[in-house]
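step=encode ok
step=design start
structure_in=
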């Protein structure tokens, strides 16, 4: 079973949408996407955006994101990419450096949004 098949795209509870940890893996193959860190994070945020919009919300209604990095040196690049998705009013965000992530991905992001 592909890694991506183990997790649902989101859970909705009332007006809240919980988007589970998105990693830098291709959803179709489960393989780690090649490319620069920024490209991998951008792809993950595009998936978050698609899930949030499919749930009847938008990126400006994202309340909180948690980002896990395997290299804290990626923090400035992560900030830059996140700012491009949340240019005016960014959500609350926590960032943690971790030793490793499932599948060898360098970054994982999970978000909570609202629909009302």
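sequence_out=
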């Amino acid at each position: 079973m592909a890694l991506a098949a183990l997790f649902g795209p989101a859970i909705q509870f009332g007006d809240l949408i919980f988007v589970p940890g998105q990693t830098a893996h291709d959803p179709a193959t489960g393989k780690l996407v090649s490319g620069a860190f920024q490209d991998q994070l951008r792809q993950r945020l595009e998936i978050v955006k698609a899930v949030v919009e499919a749930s009847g919300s938008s990126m400006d209604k994202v309340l909180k994101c948690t980002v896990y990095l395997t290299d804290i040196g990626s923090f400035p690049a992560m900030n830059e990419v996140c700012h491009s998705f949340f240019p005016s009013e960014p959500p609350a965000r926590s960032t943690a450096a971790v030793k490793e992530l499932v599948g060898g991905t360098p970054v994982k992001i999970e978000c909570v949004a609202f629909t009302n």
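step=design ok
step=annotate ok -> Strands lie at 11-13, 16-23, 62-69, 92-97, 107-114.
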